Amino acid sequence: MIDYIIFAVIFKKMYQSVNFHGKEDLSQFSFLVTGCAGFIGSHLAEYLLQHNAKLVRGMDNYLTGLKSNIDLLKKYPNFEFHEADICDANACKNACDGIDFVTHQAALGSVPRSIKNPLHSHQVNVDGFLNMLIASRDANVKRFLFASSSSVYGDSVDLPKVESKIGKPLSPYAVTKLSNELYADVFAKNYSMEIIGFRYFNVFGPRQDPNGVYAAVIPKFIASLLKKENPVIDGDGLQTRDFTFVENVVQVNIKAFFAKKTDCTKRIYNVAVGANFSILEMYKDMIEILGLSFQPQHTETRKGDIRNSLADISNAKNYLDYHPTVTFKEGLNRTVQYFKTIYSN
User: Fold this and answer.
1) Assigned domain for 98 exists
2) Residue 216 belongs to some domain of the structure
3) How far is CA 226 from the centre of its chain?
4) Which residues are catalytic?
5) Which CATH number do you get for residue 152?
6) Beta bridge partners of 311
7) What whole-number distance in Å separates Cα of residue 167 and Cα of residue 178?
8) Where are the alpha helices (DSSP H) in 192-278?
9) pTM recorded for the entire structure
10) CA dist., res. 311 & res. 276, Å (int)
11) Is 161 helix (H, G, I), strand (E, B) or coil?
């Protein structure tokens, strides 16, 4: 079992040296981060806490999140935790009470998991999302941000992916995220809410859980290699992804809270780097960093997976001043070093 608490010592104050909020005084605002025990949610909460937000309220039911992430956040006096489920409408209402900004990261991820149990994915990702929209509307929050997914591009073969053109979804998970976008648009128009959605492209980085059958590819590969095991690649490994380091995702969320450009809300944005790499290229870079020479195993292609992925991020640049500062290779190196430190303790 990995002791993620070590992270607090080794990677102390991860976001103190960066400023994504400009001249905004975060001590004047209260934030709600759903899914804060998860990978992206915990990083967002960490940034806000390190930059002295008035209050960061986290909400999570530990369905996929880790208690160790909450233990890290609890060290800050301005953090408040609600152990609650977004499928509980009253819990969502309580979590939004007195909140200025919401970033909704809670979801049941994974394409294969959604194919195995589509009803559960729908209940969490659609019913839970609607609960959060209603609660945020009733609490008169200033702005509501939410995590969508590049999976909504479905069977579209166009590259790069532009927000205005999608294909048919290839998985129940993709359907739930597309549903989120449609609900967000309706609520923005009918209730005059300021809403911004993000189509995340293969986010990775420190604290991403490498365990379990639905673990993301990068932490899963690193963990296998550090345990001297041969990673398993789905298909031929030539499928490409626009891998996005988590710090870039934190940047776009924080900037979106305060973006003032006309028409910046009521939009969906691609969040990526704008460069893609094949799974085999990623694997080659990974073993080079680790100084290993393990050969991967190959298995069948996963159902519901998109073959190639590359994002056009010009809208996020123009409307939100998003400029990814961490390249894929730099992010991969930082992630590998993190897991090396964790596994050596």
Assistant:
1) yes
2) no
3) 24
4) 173
5) 3.40.50.720
6) 161
7) 11
8) 217-226, 246-258
9) 0.93
10) 8
11) strand
